[in-house]
Write a structure and sequence with these properties.
559 residues; mainly alpha; 3% strand
Length: 559
């Protein structure tokens, strides 16, 4: 694009970077909220919070220019530092970027809310939350861009998120209505102006080279800071390449995952204990208990160390060039990450379970006119009863199933990251096809509810979904067979290793059957179709992932 205006050029660059993500966010928000309203009979408040959660984040595609990972907050600092050499004022550079982020995300929320109001009729707020979203985005990007210090970024993000979230939560009335007073709107405008001033001052220091650059990260592609990896100091073994690789993976990513799991495990007991005298903290304590395990699981991604910076996604040069077999390298990385992740999950699970016993000290805690504490205690006793009746064999099967499930999650996410780096266009096409299918199903359900189409249309959509599941199952079987042939033909896996993968999958299937039988719904009492599906996926997934992981890593290393 050729233009004489630097502002238009900066806005155009922002649009080119975020246009794909904008379309994905718009589709995800509409599909998720429509599905909640159509199939789960949720109220308007649920759809509102779905849209807020979708459009409250800054643009990930722009934040990725600095590198880092989403759940690490990405690397702090202004992402358009390549503009520092241009003769453009800092106020113009920062103002155009911040204004684009705030206005574009707010516009996406307005479009999504207007569509849902037109299609389903829920009274979703529109312009009453405009000032809130703009001010929040200004504050969020101001914290992210004004500093290169990781600690300041984390503290500033929490100091920004908690007051805004509390303000919005207290202003959501039933039936759904969000109204802010004139003073609150003026205060939010002031926060946006102050955030803009801090961002301009911080970017000016970065532009002049006065801002202190963060120390170099030895594992920046992992998303963990160097000081965290440096907490674990032990010498590298030189007796064998396998031990050295295990040491490297433990040092760079495994033990930091365990350390972060230990840090997360501290939060639920602390909040549950504070909730005894302070009732306001109790919902947050329950929320921390619910999100602790998923938060630890999310840390298991990118086991192959795929980097991303300035729009480029690539593998580490060290990982791609070391003289080590791809299958063994992928296996060691997945095993080390799985072992550390399982240990972190055990610690967090024990922490959450021990914290739940403090609910008895909350007394008569009333939520929506009902006593909440007795219900939570009854659920805890039901879990105790169900677990206490399990035999030692069932316990062993459950532990084996849980470990393999974690390994499958780690390997599949690592393979997906590698494939997205190698084949980004094809991965985007697959994601868009899934979103399109969900959108078509939601539209068919809406047409049936409105009486526009006959029930046959909705049933056809359900039948289409079942057929899609069947096609995906058949495609998965064919893909597994192709991957097996490919890894054997390319000599990525030896025949002994392939047989080991088949044996592990068979043992996992047997353990899965034992776990299902322990729930009181044996496979023999299920319909044949459901039993086949319930047995096929647990048998197929570990087998497919065991060959997909080395195959995807090979594509990144050698192509």
């Amino acid at each position: 694009m050729t233009t004489r205006s630097p502002i238009v050029a900066i806005l155009w660059e922002n649009w080119r970077l975020s246009r794909v993500e904008a379309a994905q966010r718009l589709a995800q928000g509409i599909v998720a909220a429509s599905a909640a309203l159509t199939f789960f009979h949720a109220d308007a408040a649920v759809a509102f919070w779905i849209l807020i959660a979708t459009h409250s984040f800054f643009w990930f595609s722009i934040a990725k220019l600095n590198g880092g990972q989403f759940f690490d907050g990405y690397k702090p600092g202004f992402p358009f530092y390549l503009l520092y050499s241009r003769p453009v004022p800092t106020v113009t550079i920062v103002g155009a970027a911040m204004l684009y982020d705030a206005v574009s995300c707010t516009a996406l929320y307005l479009v999504s809310s207007a569509f849902l109001r037109f299609a389903f009729g829920p009274p979703l707020p529109l312009f009453s939350v405009t000032v809130f979203l703009v001010a929040y985005h200004f504050a969020y990007t101001g914290v992210q861009w004004s500093t290169r210090n990781r600690v300041v970024q984390w503290i500033g993000t929490m100091a920004t998120f908690l007051p805004f979230f509390a303000l919005l939560k207290n202003r959501v009335a039933s039936p759904l209505q969000v109204e802010f007073s004139l003073l609150e709107n003026a205060l939010m405008v002031l926060v946006g102006v102050v955030s803009f001033g801090f961002a301009v001052a911080g970017v000016a220091r970065q532009r002049r080279g006065e801002a202190r650059t963060a120390p170099p990260w030895t594992v920046e592609w992992r998303g963990f800071s160097d000081w965290l990896a440096g907490l674990f100091r032990f010498p590298c073994p030189t007796s064998s390449p396998a031990r050295a690789q295990v040491w490297f993976d433990l040092k760079s990513s495994g033990l930091p995952v365990l350390a972060i799991g230990l840090a997360i495990a501290i939060v639920p007991p602390l909040l549950f204990a504070i909730g005894i005298p302070i009732a306001f903290v109790r919902p947050h304590a329950l929320l921390s208990a619910m999100v602790s395990v998923p938060a630890v699981l999310i840390l298991g991604g990118n086991a192959f160390g795929i980097r991303r910076k300035q729009g480029r996604t690539y593998a580490s040069a060290f990982e791609a060039t070391q003289a080590y077999g791809t299958a063994r390298l992928a296996g060691l990385k997945v095993l080390v990450r799985t072992a550390c992740l399982v240990a972190a999950l055990i610690v967090v699970g024990v922490s959450v379970w021990a914290s739940s016993s403090l609910v008895s000290a909350w007394g008569d805690w009333v939520v929506n006119g009902k006593a909440a504490a007795p219900g939570l205690l009854r659920r805890r006793r039901a879990i105790e009863l169900a677990v206490g009746t399990m035999t030692a064999y069932e316990w062993l099967a459950l532990a084996f199933v849980a470990t393999i499930v974690v390994a499958v999650i780690v390997a599949s996410r690592a393979a997906f990251t590698a494939l997205r780096a190698r084949y980004p266009r094809r991965v985007n096409i697959a994601v868009w096809l899934l979103l399109l299918h969900g959108f078509v199903v939601v539209l068919c359900g809406l047409a049936f509810q409105r009486g526009i189409a006959s029930p046959f249309a909705f049933y056809s959509a359900q039948d289409l979904t079942n057929r899609v599941i069947a096609v995906v199952g058949a495609a998965s079987v064919l893909a597994t067979a192709y991957l097996f042939w490919s890894v054997l033909a390319e000599r990525l896996l030896a025949l002994r290793q392939a047989c080991g993968a088949i044996l592990v999958s068979a043992v996992f299937a047997a353990a899965w059957v034992t776990v299902v039988d322990s729930t009181g719904v044996p496979l023999s009492r299920m319909p044949a179709t459901d039993a086949v599906r319930l047995l096929m996926w647990p048998t197929l997934l570990p087998l497919m992932v065991s060959v997909l992981a080395p195959w995807s890593l090979s594509r990144v290393r050698h192509t």
